[in-house]
């Protein structure tokens, strides 16, 4: 059994930030660090003191992490970026919020004495003496210390303090992984101080030494233990008085910690097989476990449950069958065609997740060029007469401002051109659409047509497809391209308005230009000719999309499976750090890489679109190597130059690494490999939370007047799927109780430390 930890992070917005530029504004962005390792950088929002990001991330990380910190920065083009403030949430704080931390948090000042990181290796002993016992402290080495100098390293030394006496190690130049192997002794006297303090410092020639962190030990406990050795995490100096909060602004966050103990795969097989059998039987199943899961799932967690189920069945090759079952269940309880798939049902949420998992690369191919054109042109576009601002448009001729009518006409032409380009791209993309997506849409189209066969409902099957393809996939991606990885940065106000109007036009096309859709915003009328033409194009596209034959689909799926899809494509920035302090600026050298599950290649010129940042590359590299059985537990972050390693100054080229490998810190993305055991564990946890409701449902079904046909198991004994599910949950509960957890990575002992 292995423990898996993950963080859901949503960086919503900031407010009342201080002005850092001479214009009285700022260009804020956020950096997220887990135990001082940068893992996320949001987009920059230009010229604002109240930025909105709305960015979401899922981070997989070691269960032993200590804290997650959010730094708000001000981007500067000509100088080093300014630090505005930070919010730090410890693991203990997150553990006290089972449903997650959500709300506004005040930014606090970033104090260099609190920005400590790394660990120190110590051996502590109480040695008997003729007159009195002696306390022996051996300072062995340290790793991952904070870089305090411009060269990206430090010149560390250690001070050991006890009972008014202080002793120091030698200084190790230019290293964040120093080795000292020096021993100090202190006489233990009755009534003397009960605290031993070990402090790490960065030596500076011309300025004051920089604090690197400390560890404080309880000597009384050490007397009882006699000896202790291990790696101890360096702690900040918390002796300073707390600063006032509120004058640096606030950050709105949603952060949820999830710890899961994942059992071996065979433990989950009964649960997976039971759910798969229900999906294969479809609506013929008397128990209808999927329906029970939907009925017992609250609105707030329905998206998580839908995504988890979708991934589980995708891994079993049953995604299309699972979605088809949900389609049938929703169609069975829908009487009005105009309400079909309009609610946040399990079917709607599952289909949204399905399109993001299976159709994101397709979306990039269809929509990417149009989004790029909108961002590059930066044209002023407005159709609502009440919002037209002529002064923002410029001049159409010599010293003659455009009139409102000209602005509206030009805007309609621009939007019509973008809409025609999008629909044309979509019409040509039938073959590019993933086979499993086409098969799912074909099944949806067929089910809806069977449910609403009359001539007056001839558009309903088309609207059912477009309700997902256009309204829940393409339109949201147009309005927020950053969140769908179509752009690296958020749009400015002008571009955002253009994207919003284009998304509205796409929604009107997706609604098949119904009178109700037209009546909502009459000022969209100038686009009606293009919308009507688009409806015809979209219906033709859907007709071709759902007309692909099954054999042709399977052949295409086989051809796609022979290719090694890229995990990441784009630029990788090789950087050299410069500056001083915990948040240093860097100079970058740009190379263009392509990473697949089979190879890593690079060139000096770009071969693909720029869509990645450094932390995403590192995350992708870790994911590719995560199943490598020979993965090192430690490594050398430096190079072997001359006769020693540049990081730790060891002389032997084959010496063990000096820094821990962070192979398990990864960002979850839409193209990640499926983790079948984790998905099964998440389903088990959800079902465990609603077990009482399931038992009540089972009691009601058992006592009902209609028993219906029952499944028969081995030996012809009748089997009740709900009863089976409850038994599977009980077996998994027992498996969790009896299975010992894997030992976590070595953690420094805490028994001797003082909580300061």
From TrEMBL:
Annotated ranges, domain Ras-GAP: 301-511
**Classification via InterPro entries:** C2_dom, C2_domain_sf, PH-like_dom_sf, Ras_GTPase, RasGAP_CS, RasGAP_dom, Rho_GTPase_activation_prot, Znf_Btk_motif
Looking at the record, the residues that make up the C2 domain are 1-105, 116-232
Q: Which GO terms describe its biological process?
A: intracellular signal transduction
**Entry's transmembrane regions:** none
Family matches, as PROSITE patterns: C2, RAS_GTPASE_ACTIV_1, RAS_GTPASE_ACTIV_2, ZF_BTK
Q: Which domain of life is it from?
A: Eukaryota
Spans annotated as Disordered: 731-756
Q: Which UniProt keyword terms apply here?
A: GTPase activation, Metal-binding, Repeat, Zinc, Zinc-finger
- UniProt GO MF annotations: GTPase activator activity; zinc ion binding
Protein name as catalogued: RAS p21 protein activator 4B
What is the source species? Answer: Phocoena sinus
């Amino acid at each position: 059994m292995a423990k898996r930890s993950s963080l859901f992070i949503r960086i919503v917005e900031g407010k009342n930030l201080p002005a850092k530029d001479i214009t009285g504004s700022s260009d804020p962005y956020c950096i997220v660090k887990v135990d001082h390792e940068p893992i996320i950088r949001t987009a920059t929002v230009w010229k604002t003191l109240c930025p909105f990001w709305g960015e979401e991330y899922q981070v997989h990380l070691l269960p032993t992490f200590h804290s997650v910190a959010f730094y708000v920065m001000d981007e500067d083009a000509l100088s080093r970026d300014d630090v505005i403030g930070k919010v730090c949430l410890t693991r203990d704080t997150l553990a006290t919020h089972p449903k997650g931390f959500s709300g506004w948090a005040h930014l606090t000042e970033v104090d260099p004495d609190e920005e400590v990181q790394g660990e120190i290796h110590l051996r502590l002993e109480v040695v008997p003496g003729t007159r009195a016992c002696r306390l022996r402290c051996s300072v062995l080495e340290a790793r991952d210390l904070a870089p305090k100098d411009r060269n990206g390293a430090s010149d560390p030394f250690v001070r050991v303090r006890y009972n008014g006496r202080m002793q120091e190690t030698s200084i190790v130049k230019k290293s964040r992984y120093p080795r000292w192997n020096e021993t100090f002794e202190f006489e233990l006297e009755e009534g003397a101080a009960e605290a031993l303090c070990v402090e790490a410092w960065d030596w500076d020639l011309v300025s004051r030494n920089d604090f690197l962190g400390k560890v404080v030990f309880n000597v009384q406990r050490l007397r009882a233990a006699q000896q202790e050795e291990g790696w101890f995490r360096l702690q900040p100096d918390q002796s300073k008085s707390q600063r006032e909060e509120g004058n640096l602004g606030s950050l709105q966050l949603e952060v949820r910690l999830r710890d899961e103990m994942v059992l071996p795969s065979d433990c989950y097989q009964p649960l997976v097989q039971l759910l798969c059998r229900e999906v294969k039987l479809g609506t013929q199943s008397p128990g209808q476990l999927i329906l029970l899961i939907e009925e017992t799932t609250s609105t707030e967690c329905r998206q998580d449950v839908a995504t988890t189920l979708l991934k589980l069945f995708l891994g079993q090759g049953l995604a299309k069958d699972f979605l088809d079952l949900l389609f049938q269940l929703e169609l069975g309880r829908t009487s009005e065609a105009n309400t079909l798939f309009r609610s946040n049902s399990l079917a709607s949420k599952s289909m949204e997740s399905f399109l993001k998992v299976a159709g994101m690369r397709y979306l990039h191919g269809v929509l990417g060029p149009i989004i790029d054109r909108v961002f590059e042109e930066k044209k002023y576009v407005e159709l609502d007469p009440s919002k037209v601002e002529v002064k923002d448009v410029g001049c159409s001729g010599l010293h003659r401002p455009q009139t409102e009518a000209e602005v509206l006409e030009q805007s309609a032409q621009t939007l019509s051109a973008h809409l025609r380009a999008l629909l044309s791209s979509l019409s040509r993309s039938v073959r590019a659409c993933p086979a499993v997506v086409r098969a799912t849409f074909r099944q949806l189209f067929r089910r809806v047509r069977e449910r609403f066969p009359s001539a007056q409902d001839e558009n309903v099957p088309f609207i059912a497809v477009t309700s997902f393809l256009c309204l829940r996939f393409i339109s949201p991606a147009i309005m927020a391209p950053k969140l769908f990885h179509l752009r690296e940065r958020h749009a400015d106000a002008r571009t955002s308005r253009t994207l919003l109007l284009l998304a509205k036009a796409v929604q009107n096309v997706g609604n098949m230009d119904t009178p109700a859709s037209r009546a909502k915003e009459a000022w969209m009328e100038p686009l009606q000719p293009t919308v009507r033409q688009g409806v015809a194009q979209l219906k033709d596209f859907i007709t071709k999309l759902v007309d692909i034959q099954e054999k042709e689909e399977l052949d295409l799926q086989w051809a796609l499976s022979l290719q090694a899809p890229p995990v990441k494509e784009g630029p990788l920035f090789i950087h050299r750090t410069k500056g001083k302090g915990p948040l240093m600026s860097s100079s970058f050298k740009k190379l263009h890489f392509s990473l697949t599950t089979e190879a890593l290649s690079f060139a000096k010129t770009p071969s693909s679109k720029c869509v990645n940042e450094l932390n995403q590359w590192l995350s992708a590299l870790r994911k590719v190597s995560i199943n490598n059985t020979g993965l090192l537990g430690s490594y050398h972050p430096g190079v072997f130059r001359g006769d020693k390693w540049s990081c730790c100054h060891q002389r032997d080229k084959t010496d063990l690494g000096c820094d821990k490998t962070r192979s398990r810190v990864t960002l979850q993305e839409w193209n990640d490999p499926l983790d079948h055991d984790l998905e099964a564990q998440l389903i088990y946890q959800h079902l465990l939370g609603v077990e009482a409701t399931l038992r009540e449902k089972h009691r009601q079904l058992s006592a009902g007047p209609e028993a219906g046909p029952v499944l028969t198991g081995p030996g012809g004994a009748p089997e009740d799927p709900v009863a089976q599910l409850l038994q599977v949950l009980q077996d998994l509960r027992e498996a969790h109780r009896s299975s010992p957890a894997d030992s976590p990575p070595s953690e420094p002992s805490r028994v001797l430390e003082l909580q300061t």
